Amino acid sequence: MDNFSYKNTTQIHFGKGQISKLKDEIPADARVLITYGGGSIKKNGVFEQVQAALAGIAHFEFGGIEPNPHYETLIKAVDLIKQEKINYILAVGGGSVIDGSKFIAAAALYPSDPWEIIQTYGAKVTSALPLGCVLTLAATGSEMNKGAVITKAETKDKLFFFSDHVQPRFSILDPETTYSLPAKQTGNGVVDSFVHVVEQYVTYPVNAKVQDRFAEGLLLNLLEDGPKALENPTDYDVRANLMWTATLALNGLIATGVPADWATHMIGQEITGLYGLDHGQTLAVVQPAVWLYKKEQKKAKLLQYAERVWGLREGDEDSRVMAAIENTRQFFETMGIPTRLSAYGLDASIIDPVVAKLEEHGHVNLGEHGDITAADVKEILKLAL
Amino acid sequence: MDNFSYKNTTQIHFGKGQISKLKDEIPADARVLITYGGGSIKKNGVFEQVQAALAGIAHFEFGGIEPNPHYETLIKAVDLIKQEKINYILAVGGGSVIDGSKFIAAAALYPSDPWEIIQTYGAKVTSALPLGCVLTLAATGSEMNKGAVITKAETKDKLFFFSDHVQPRFSILDPETTYSLPAKQTGNGVVDSFVHVVEQYVTYPVNAKVQDRFAEGLLLNLLEDGPKALENPTDYDVRANLMWTATLALNGLIATGVPADWATHMIGQEITGLYGLDHGQTLAVVQPAVWLYKKEQKKAKLLQYAERVWGLREGDEDSRVMAAIENTRQFFETMGIPTRLSAYGLDASIIDPVVAKLEEHGHVNLGEHGDITAADVKEILKLAL
Predict the structure, then answer these.
(1) Could you report the per-residue pLDDT of B4-14, keeping only the tens digit for each?
(2) Nearest-CA residue of chain A relative to B169?
(3) Which of A131, B55, B87, B217 is 20 to 30 A distant from B380 in Cα terms?
(4) Average pLDDT, whole number, for chain B?
(5) Is B5 close to A16, i.e. CB distance below 8 A?
(6) Side-chain half-sphere of B72: how many Cα atoms within 13 Å?
(7) Gap between the Cα atoms of A37 and A59, Å rounded
(8) What is the interface size between A and B, counted as CB pairs within 8 Å?
(9) Do domains A11-177 and A182-382 have the same CATH topology?
(10) pLDDT at site A177
């Protein structure tokens, strides 16, 4: 096991009716900006619960945060914050709303051009408004970590930043808020959580048993309950298990003391930035291709994954590895998320632009060994056609 | 899954050489009390590392904190704290030193008789000195939680308290500090961790898949690496896996949203208080007896445990349950910890005194259903003879 430092300060309130805890978490004299996305929270009762819990606390609204939240949209919230002297951000939504709200929270106090926050990966952030979350989608884990991904629409740049200052003070996770999700969002969320786990697990062995077994447990939960959520979207236990699984998939715990890959995310981000595919869709396409390309280097962990997650114990090593990769692909398809670029109307013509964007962003030498070059990304994308 | 709230603010620094991080965690102008136990830290190099890291920071020593730390000992540290204007506690040791230091940290600022802290289970604690830890034994989980167990030697009362104020600010977990442990302490630590997990897992099903699979993962780690630590005490990976497993066994994470038993701990505490058995020894004795007595009520989770932890899939339900209980007992014995009261020279004459102490402490109606009465405890102890 490698050395590590770990701390996670977010207060979680999990379960039915927990939105009422907002009144305990947000100071009575706060001036709150409620941030949200396309407005589904105003149709499914979540917004009403939030308003009821905030009774007596001054609050304002900023809606319209899009998937892969745009810098151009978020920056408008900063004006409202200054105008209304807002001092607390409450994100109500999924990962995009929370990520966007992290940027808003930091940008509101940033002394110079806020795009620097992204350009410096958050290193120059020294303060942020306090942020709380009401999560409505099990997917990104943003509700319990310090990362965010922001897109500059003008230049099609999708980039991340990290800062302790934007770690949510609290997050409320009520599985019932996810009952009304479209199937595609449920599917994308399960794929996103799954790929978060494997990016931190299918690398090379360092004899980190807690981390491996926690990762395997999270993957088994997704395999079992992902399809059930599509079949019966209002099964509380299924939604609860997916929600807590998604949070733990990316709250730093399974990352402790182990190498991480993240090549799939880096490549996928550029595909979303350039061609607008959903985040989960890009992961479903790229992940199996990365594994096919790197199956020799990842063999030890792919075999462990094959055995412990898929129960594959028969046949030679190569056939077990290939079966595990194929099973993974089939699982993503079962979740309604196609795993080939061609299924999204994309072909080999995207390869050069995607690689050019990676190089522009300095995202080269990817993977747990830092040995996936631009030439390798081209080969990986060929395997994803 | 039941509703829950969860937060854990302790900063962990894990791995070789991490004791040097003390200088980053403790303010340069602090006046630090280093608390420790019987003095092994002065023989195995840990104390030297601590002193080196604290160079330039004023520090004092308070040694001699015994296993099952005594109120009578701890209270002496409070005088030293007042006399030397100490404002930071650094516990260097295992669970007893950390538990005792939590009490010291709270007692130092407590405005009336500090025994009230215990009598009120910590409810009246409103402040404490900041506490940091250098852990030297994988066992209790105290390094990342807000609980402590204290014994009043005069009256043989072993009792616990909880307070957010005594949650360690940071804990340094260097597996190398555990290389020199006596085999009995390694064995007790593994048994303690194991029983922490099953007290939160072998109850009744609430469809909490994250918690169940994390619990099962921790148990498998202990089964695999516990015996290896006895065979080769200086295997870094083995010690590292045991250390991180023990911390996660009782940091609140696997307790989220599930029922908890704790009957074994409550009964075991009285046996330690009255007869001086090690904490791990009492657990090894009582746990199998609780399961034998409650095997019908716990059947669903015992069957899950039998299958997922022990691989028991053949035979009828009763035989699988009995095999799982017997395997558990054998595992404790393999760790060098006998599982019968008779092995410690105790007989049925202890039953009435133990039950009387439980009643005196108001610890009746135990277990996840609150249905284990004094009469039931007598039957359980008969099964442990």
Answers:
(1) 999 999 999 99
(2) A7
(3) B217
(4) 97
(5) no
(6) 9
(7) 17
(8) 132
(9) no
(10) 97
